[in-house]
Amino acid sequence: MRLIGLLAGLAAVATAFGGCGDGAAPPRAARTVDVSALTFDDVQQRVRAAATKPGVIFHSTDTQHNDSFGDAVFETWLDLDRHVARLEQNGELYQMFGPDKMASLGPDDRRYVEAQYSWDGIDKPLLGFSLDYLTRIVDQRVEDEGIEAAVVDGVPAISVRVQQETIADGDHRTEKATIYLDEAFLPLEMDLDIGAGAEYRTTHVFRSEYLARDAVAADFFSFDQLRAISKTATDNVREAAQPFGRAYWLGDPFEQM
Questions:
Q1: In this structure, what DSSP letter does residue 67 have?
Q2: Distance between CA atoms of residues 81 and 56, nearest Å
Q3: Angstrom distance (rounded) from CA 111 to CA 230
Q4: Which residue, 55, 129, 133, is CA-closest to 86?
Q5: Which of 54, 131, 151, 173 is the most buried (most CB within 10 A)?
Q6: 143-194-75-96 Cα dihedral, nearest 10 degrees
Q7: Among residues of the chain, what percentage have pLDDT more than 90?
């Protein structure tokens, strides 16, 4: 009888506290932005301002999933005040931007390639290569398809649907994106359909933060970092020749040239 009474008491305690932990959803944060009052111009201005906050480095981690191409993680460090950016894919540096030029490693031969570019008021070339979610909102060719209140992982969010007409390889496509922003207008998620079939749809999950400029090394945005890990034509020929023992050019051993 004592055991039965003890079990009954424990059951009563469990019932009393059941609402606190038995699958109950945590309280949802109160919404602070009136989404119904937002215009597309408002969103364009505020999302760009959030990613280009003066005096700091904006660091974005974009975890992507595509059924055909698998998963990849892209990281961007952007300091728009100084017109510099650094891009990495799966932890490897592959592209760098400066005020008037950009450089990247060839996807196949890893050779260093540098090009000049000019920027306008929104530094479109830099932003276009470094923050895809942002260009899908601020690009002048993008059409507003709707702004709605949403919730992402219990956080009040803003859903922005856009579309853009493009021509790729002679084919006309309608690219559609749904971007979820938090109430600071930083990205949370993006669903992207480039209009080339379901196998090309990609989901993005973002993590964003602001870094002090002295939180990274002094040469963090230096093009020399990219050059240091690039390969020359000699490196590529030498690697290609390894299975055959030695490479020759006009009769001379390649490594002696």
A1: T
A2: 8
A3: 5
A4: 129
A5: 131
A6: -80
A7: 36
